């Protein structure tokens, strides 16, 4: 029974692992830290899995646990050291659709996002995942209006980081 | 904001192909140990509760009291001991209830709240013990003063002492010792939980600020 549950979980996690990778990349600044946080999130997801009813999508459910682990449970400091992150080596745009200027813009934006604090990153993450404010507010435990206000402030902050 | 939406566009298509983890690796991860702060808080809390409860058991005062022939004070101490047990058990129960409430599927704010609550319970337990130490030291001293025959020399001296200087000295020494003990514990806990919870507190404050 529990072996069976483990099988289902591992399969689901493997298919949805990109959610976790996104969070790990946002909250850490080295490959080692990335792997470490990934492992902790996996453990927490597995611990919470028996409570997963399947009435929501695995991915939706995983957001919460993964974000909560990154922000709340993870012990090591994930604060950014202001160096160029390993993101520098990564290409966002696919090769067949490559546009140097756009790629640079995206990279700068990403680096700006990495300079935000943990909570701001969480808001941006959910925004980038195309979650509506209702879900953002429920995930973080703040009111919807305040989530909206905060998101606007973050946008202002990002603008300032990009154009000092 | 244009750039953010540009990022959003590529964000959702990102495949993370260099980071992909296989099923075998996930299996391995399931059997590794968590290093979350909740686990650390649990471990430290259990150590604290055991340690403080052990102190109460080890420092058995019955013999000292018998040697002082202060049996009439024994009944009060017995009552105090039982009250102490009830308090310890209720603390453990509260801690256990708070701990089981911690769940990663609640909202971030609720989760932080729940974690800080378990922490507070243990902190209160430690304070309770420190206050008990404080009271017991004073009580013990008063009893020794009244019942212990060895104290008669000091008592006699004090009777001849017009300025109460000896009494003041005793109180000063007692106060200083208690201050050092309690101060050391306070510092120790500040450091211990400061390191463990610094990030959590910062994030909790940040979240609360949004909702002001």
Describe this protein's structure.
- The complex is a heterodimer of chains A (164) and B (212).
- By secondary structure, chain A is mainly α.
- Chain A has a domain at 1-79: Rna Polymerase Sigma Factor, Chain: A.
- In chain A, 68% of the residues lie in helices and 0% in strands.
- Chain A has helices at residues 2-15, 17-27, 31-48, 58-73, 100-114, 118-128, 133-140, 144-162.
- In chain A, α2 packs across α3 (31-48) and α3 (31-48) packs across α4 (58-73).
- The longest helix of chain A has 19 residues, at 144-162.
- Chain B is mostly helical.
- In chain B, 81% of the residues lie in helices and 0% in strands.
- Chain B contains eight helices and no strands.
- The longest helix of chain B is centred in the C-terminal third of the chain and has 46 residues, at 165-210.
- Chain B is elongated, with a radius of gyration of 27 Å.
- Chain B starts with a helix and ends with a helix.
- At the A-B interface, α1, α2, α3, α4 and α5 of A face α1, α2, α3, α6 and α8 of B.
**Oligomeric state of the chains present here:** heterodimer
Report how far the terminal alpha carbons of chain B are from each other.
Answer: 25 Å
Average predicted local confidence, pLDDT of chain A:
85
Element order of chain A: H for helix, E for strand: HHHHHHHH
CA gyration radius of chain A, whole angstroms: 17 Å
Shape of chain B: elongated
Helix proportion of chain B: over 70%
Helix amount of chain A: 55-70%
Low confidence ranges of chain A? 79-84
- The value of Rg of chain B in angstroms is 27 Å
Q: Which outline of chain A best applies?
A: globular
List how many beta strands of chain A DSSP finds.
Answer: 0
């Amino acid at each position: 029974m529990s072996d069976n549950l483990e099988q289902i979980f591992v399969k689901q996690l493997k298919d949805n692992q990109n959610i976790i990778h996104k969070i790990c990349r946002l909250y850490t600044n080295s490959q080692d830290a990335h792997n470490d946080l990934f492992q902790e999130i996996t453990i927490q997801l597995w611990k919470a899995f028996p409570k997963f009813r399947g009435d929501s999508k695995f991915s939706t459910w995983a957001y919460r646990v993964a974000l909560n682990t990154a922000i709340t449970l993870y012990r090591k400091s994930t604060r950014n050291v202001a160096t160029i992150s390993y993101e520098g080596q990564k290409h966002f745009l696919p090769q067949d659709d490559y546009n140097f200027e756009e790629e640079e813009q995206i990279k700068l934006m990403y680096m700006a996002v990495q300079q935000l604090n943990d909570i701001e990153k969480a808001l941006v993450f959910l925004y980038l995942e195309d979650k509506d404010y209702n879900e953002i507010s429920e995930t973080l435990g703040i009111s919807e209006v305040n989530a909206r206000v905060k998101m606007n402030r973050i946008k202002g902050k990002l603008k300032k980081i990009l154009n000092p | 904001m244009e750039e953010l939406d540009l990022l959003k566009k590529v964000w959702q298509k990102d495949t993370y192909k260099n980071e992909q983890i296989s099923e075998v690796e996930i299996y391995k991860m399931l059997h590794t140990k968590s290093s979350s702060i909740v686990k650390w808080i649990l471990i430290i809390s259990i150590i604290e509760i055991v340690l403080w409860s052990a102190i109460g058991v080890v420092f058995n005062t019955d013999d000292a009291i018998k040697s002082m022939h202060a049996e009439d004070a024994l009944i009060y101490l017995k009552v105090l001991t039982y009250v102490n047990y009830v308090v310890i058990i209720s603390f453990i129960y509260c801690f256990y209830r708070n701990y089981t409430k911690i769940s990663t599927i609640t909202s971030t704010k609720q989760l932080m709240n729940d974690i800080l609550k378990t922490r507070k319970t243990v902190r209160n337990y430690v304070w309770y013990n420190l206050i008990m130490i404080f009271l017991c030291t004073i009580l013990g001293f008063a009893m020794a003063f009244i019942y212990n025959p060895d104290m008669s020399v000091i008592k006699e001296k004090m009777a001849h002492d017009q300025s109460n200087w000896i009494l003041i000295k005793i109180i000063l020494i007692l106060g200083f010792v208690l201050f050092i003990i309690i101060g050391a514990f306070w510092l120790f806990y500040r450091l211990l939980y400061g390191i463990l919870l610094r990030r959590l507190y910062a994030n909790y404050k940040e979240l609360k600020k949004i909702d002001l």
